Structure formats: C-alpha cells, structure tokens
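Hello, quick one for you while I still have it in my head. A protein chain has come my way and I'm curious about its shape. I'm sending you its amino acid sequence along with the backbone structure tokens. I'd be grateful if you could look everything over and explain what you see. Here's the protein in full, and shout if anything looks odd to you:
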Amino acid sequence: MNNRFFSSLALRNIKSNKQLYIPFLLSSTAIIAMFFLMVSLMTNRFVQERSSSLPTLFMIGVIVIGIFSVIFILYTNSFLIKRRKKEIGLYGILGLEKKHVAKILFFESVFSSLLSIAAGLLTGLLFGRLVFMLLNFMLRMPNDIAYTTSLISVGATVALFVLIFVITLLYNISQFTFANPIKLLKGKQEGEKEPKGSLILFILSLILLGWGYGISITIPDPLAAIEKFFLAVLLVIIGTYLLFISGSIFILKALKNNKRIYYRPGAFISISGMLYRMKQNAVGLANICILASMVIIAVSTTIAIYMGSEETLEGRYPYEHNLKLFGDMDDVAEINNRFFEAQDEVLSLTEESGLEVEAMESYRYESLFGNLQEDRFVFEETTVRNELPVLMMVIPLEDFNGMADENYSLEEDEALFYHSTKTYENDELALGNKNYRLTEIDNEFSEDMALTESIALVVPDESHLLDIRADFMEQFPDANYVTIDAEIGWDTEGAEEQEKALIEQLENEYSFNSGKDGLYDSRDTQREEWYSINGGFLFLGIFLGLLFTLGTLLITYFKQVSEGFDDRGKFQIMQKVGLDEDMIKESTRSQIVWMFLLPIVIATIHVSFAYPIVRKLLMIFGVTNDMTWLLTFIAVVIAFAAIYWMIYRVTSRVYYSIVK
C-alpha cells in the first residue's frame, strides 16, 4: 500500500467526521490568527518606538495565547480521538497494522494542521488592518500605527503550531499503539462503574476555595494584593477542579441516597444521568467555569481601567502642570529659598508664555520608611525586605494649611496625623528624638496613600523636617534616601499653542540633564502615554476575552457532541423499557440545563469574591470609583451570561440531533 492510499483514506476520514473536524479546524484557525496578530503587534516597529510598556503588554498576550493554544488544542483533540477509537479499532480488526494506522493519522494531522495554519495566517492578514484600526482608536495616538507583518511573526506562528500539532499526532498514535483493537472496537459497550465521591476531597475543595476567597476579602492594600493575587487564583483553580471532580459526585450520591427525592421518575433519570455525566465531564465543566471567570475578570477590569483613564490622570496629576523638586539641604533658609524661588520661576515662565494662572498649590515634604511599634515609628534603613514597610510623609503646617485651605495651629510637641488603615489608636507618637501629641485628620493628601499602609504627619514648621532627617542620619549614616522634596502644581488658561510652548519650555528647564534638581510633568503629555497603556490593556483584555469565550464555546460543543454519541444508545434503551419520549426528553433537558448552569453560577460566585482584591489592584491604576468597576462588572457578567445562553441553545440542538 502506497502513501496515496493512506492520504486518500485520511481525507475520507476527515469528511466522514466533519461534525467533529469542522469545529476543530475553525477553532484552530481562530487561535492561530489571534496568536499571529498578537505577535505582529509585539514586533511592530511603531509600537516598539511609541511606548516601552506596549511591547511588554503584547508579550504577555503572546505568552498567554501561546500557553492557552497548547492546552486548548490538546484538549479538543482528545475529544476527537475519543470519538474515533472504535473506528481505529476496526482498522486493526480488518488487518491493518499499527504502522498503517499511524500513517493514516499522520496524513490526517498533516492535512488538518496545514489547513489550519494557512487559514490562520490568511485570516490574520485579512483582519489585521481592522484590528490595528481598533487599537489606534483605543490608544488615541496622534499618528496611526502602520499595519505591517514580518517573517519573524509568520515564523514564530508556524513554529509554535507545528510543534503543537506534532504533539497531538504523537498523542493520537499512543492511544492505539498500546491498546487492544477489540477493546477499542467495543468502545463504550462495556458497563460503567458508578463514580465514587470523596468526602475528604469535597471538604478540601471547600477549604481551598474558602482560603482563596479569604485572601481576597481580607487583603489590606493594593501592593499586598499584587503579592497575594496569584496565590488566591491558584487556590481557587485547584478548589474548582476538586469541587467538580469529587464534590459534585458526593452531592449527587447524597441526593441518590435520599429515597423521597430519588424514587420519582424525573428525579430518578436526572440524578442518575448527571452522576455519570459528572464522571465524564467534571474536568470539562471546571475548565468552562475557570474560562468564564477569566473572561469576566479580564474584560471588566480592562474596561474599568480604560473608562477611568481621565479620573486616574486627575488623581495622579491634580494640576495641569506639576513640578517636583528634589533636595538634600541642611538648613531652613536653603529649603525656603529653593522652594519659593522655584514658584517664582514657574509663575514668571507662565506669564511670559501669555497664560494666566488659575490655581496653584505647593508643599514641602519628607518621606520615611519604617514600622509602628507601640507608640513609636521605627526607622528602616532600606525599603528592601520581606514585608512592605509603612510609608510616612512629614509636611510643615504652613504648607498643609495652604493645600487644605485650613487654619490649624500647633504647639512644638503637637502634630496632625492621618493613618491610611486607621489602626493606630494612640494619642502620641515618638519619631526620632521627638514625641508628638496627635490630632487625627482626614486624607487631604495624595490618593496614592491608599496603595500601601501610609502615614501623614503635619509638624509645626520646616525645622522639624531637618531634625527628623538628622535623627535618621544619626541612626543610619550610610543611608541617603531621606531628602526634603517639594511639589508645585498649577492650572493655566490660554491658547493651546501657548500651552504647548510652556510645556516644552518647562520640560527643557527641568529635565534630567538640566542640572536642576527637579522634574516637570504635564497632564496633557501624560494623557497620551496613559491612554496608550490603558488602551493596550483594554485591547489585550478584549482579545483574551474573545479567546477564552471561544475556548468556552468549543469545549462546550465538543462536550455536547461527545455526550450525544454516548447517550444515543441509552436513550433508545429507555424507550424500549417503556418510558415515553416526553419524559425522557424532559429529564435529559434538565440534566443539560444543570450542566450549563453550574459553570456560570460558580464562575459568578468566584468573580464576586474576587471583587475586593480586583478593586485593590485597580487602585494601582488609579481607578478609585467603585461605581465604575461595579457597573462594568455587572454589565460583563450579563453579557457573558447572554453569550453563554446562546452557546447552550446551539449546542443543545446539536446534542438532541445526535441522540435522535
């Protein structure tokens, strides 16, 4: 027998199994196209030159899509080979040797992989310009990204998916190489044993889920959320698999043991049917649940970040023009001269540009790191340690009254005090060689103080800043991070051309190479960069959301097809023993509905408990409006539930058509 015979047989097999192969080829094509587009974005020269953050974002996208592609194609391929075991067993009975069967599978793999890769690259090229237009809209760039492709993008895509399809071929060959053809031919004819549910694994799943939920609920601040987020995700993923694999069977067996519930026609068929369904499909349902959670979190958070871009800019840059001064000074006169001279200079430059100053705010401050021990703030020599230190910002009273529009007065041993976690309850605080009597105030400072445990201490005058710095240097003479810095912010009114000219002049005056210990930032300048980052996040979130939704659709489809073929014989047997078609259909429908509801219900529970930790992470991006995130979250849950319902409608029809 020559290769032409085997290739012809392979093509005929693909046509005969088109109900399985067409969705597999379409999904493979879509994933290849998405990977190709993401690699094209990452390697695009304009993207690389425009922002240092965008290539990193798209690199993350490439890695995530690459890992997902390996898992997804191997997983869906396992459904394919499962349905074809009887066919492969028949080849052995008819006299074909295992090497001949391997050749048939080789040609099937070659045809399907070549078709998928070629169609994926072509789809990526055709839709590439549309995708780049969407990205240009999201990034709000002054110049559009030019759509380009490269041999590197094509080569990386081809190399990855050739490797994946080689792995699937080896897996398929292994499925019959070590199996008895007669056993393969019998397939599902052998009786199934009742699945076993483990109370221990069920309890362990609840413990892991509770642990992950507890981390999310009790997380203290955004920076701690970064450290704990992936641990919480890992715990919830493991807990979800255990819950579906063992916990669901344990619950169904408990219902089966309840005679009042079980011994009714509808419940009898539904519970027993679901018991065996869960044995076969627990992992698939857990995968759907996890993918649904990923879709909801990825899309809702990236939309919330993008919608909160203006809010974030105003929070981080409260004024149109922002100047930060860095200082390492030893006397009050030097501090005052530099502080007030800088204000005079920026006012003069603004007036020379023909602009009017609408509002202005300025204050000096000193930053310290340490920890609270009883009624003392203990200095830390460095911020590098296992636990995040407490950040303290010390501000002179004159500057605080100006920025908060207050009229406080303080004695030499008094201070105003703000603590972000509200856990310090003492009336006094020792700092260096000074002891302050405290008066608690609200947060009149930066929103960034909510990112980690922070303290603001308002002292009588600027001489206290020097004394505190001297106490720190006495304790840690080699440390040099404690300096007395200043922030100056102001808004202007005038023509756009004049604004741009002032921004350019101030950027030159206070650049790193100017010799001045200061750094200027404009909200308008940062807006372009901020939208490019947030637009990149939104694009990546939507892209991954579509990918995970596609995964949900295909896993559900293959699960329904597989179950349809498995249940067709059982459906006929139930009719022969006297159960009418309506009752069988109703009980079967209830099983399908529950199998569909379980993943989306548990996914919604997962993301609801993830709300606190995701909210903390969003604060790092400057999204502090809870309503923005909540409305986005609810909208995405409803949208995904609607998509999931459509998936249910389509795939359930496929199931019923096979069963009948």
